[in-house]
Write a structure and sequence with these properties.
There is one protein chain. The protein is α+β, with helices and mostly antiparallel strands. It has nine helices and twelve strands. The strands form three sheets. Strands 1-8-3-6 form a four-stranded antiparallel sheet. The protein has a four-stranded antiparallel sheet with strand order 2-7-4-5. The longest helix has 27 residues.
């Protein structure tokens, strides 16, 4: 048995943790799992490429994938990172057209897939699934509206600071503290914000020099939350 076969054999073949199917009857979930095809990918493996004519919908059982789009200059920009419990690829299944983005594995991940016709049939059989897909489209449209606004009105540095703000969470170790639990690489930040890695390094370095943030292992501690918000709006209080 190959290493790939062994990984697939031992992968968790269940969709019970996929948010889209939450609350479905156990028998309905078992039927969906039986219809699914399972895949294992390693870091940077391509799940599907832009403009490919595949129509499968993918569900992330473990790990994460990155959804990428290319600009006119050929530079790839990260549209989203899809983590375990979520899904992607539904656009092609619904309209039957080519893929609108490229998808690669962030690291080792296990995915389940359903062909487009089966996915549409599930939406018809279970209206709650169809409603959740519509809600997801609404969130995507709102998020893209914000990104377009940011690209047209913010400087490169402001976009980096705004992206940091979007990732900030409450720090359970400090009263009223804020942090980013796992700080992405400069390459990832550059992809998300449409900037260069050097620009990301300079922007975060400036925050550290001013005492606004502090790097601790994989985390980024926000020491001055109000000032970070001002910096994202272009107000520099050196």
């Amino acid at each position: 048995m190959s290493d790939e076969d062994e990984k697939l054999r031992t992968a968790p073949r269940t969709l019970r943790d996929i948010d889209l199917f939450a609350g479905l009857p156990a028998e309905a979930l078992r039927e969906i799992e039986q219809e699914a095809t399972w895949h294992h990918f390693e870091e940077d493996d391509c799940v599907f490429d832009r403009h490919s004519d595949t129509l499968e919908v993918y569900f992330v059982a473990s790990g994460a994938v990155r959804i990428l789009s290319s600009g006119r200059g050929g530079q790839e920009v990260t549209l989203a990172v899809v983590k375990d419990g979520n899904y992607f690829g539904e656009l092609a299944a619904i309209d039957g057209k080519g893929r609108s983005a490229r998808v690669v594995a962030v690291g080792p991940c296990d995915l389940a897939s359903l062909d487009g016709e089966r996915f549409l049939a599930i939406m018809m059989r279970h209206p709650v699934v169809a409603l959740r897909v519509m809600e997801r489209f609404t969130r995507i449209i709102r998020s893209l509206d914000d990104r377009v606004t940011d690209l047209s009105t913010l400087s490169d540095t402001q976009r980096i600071y705004a992206e940091l703000i979007n990732m900030v969470e409450a720090d359970p170790r400090r009263p009223n503290g804020r942090y980013i639990p796992e700080m992405p690489s400069h390459k990832e930040m550059a992809s998300w914000t449409g900037t260069a890695r050097e620009t990301v390094a300079q922007a975060i370095g400036e925050l550290a020099r001013q005492g606004i943030v502090e790097r601790r292992s994989k985390s980024l501690i926000v020491k001055d939350w109000p000032r970070l918000q001002l910096m994202a709006r272009g107000v520099d209080l050196k």
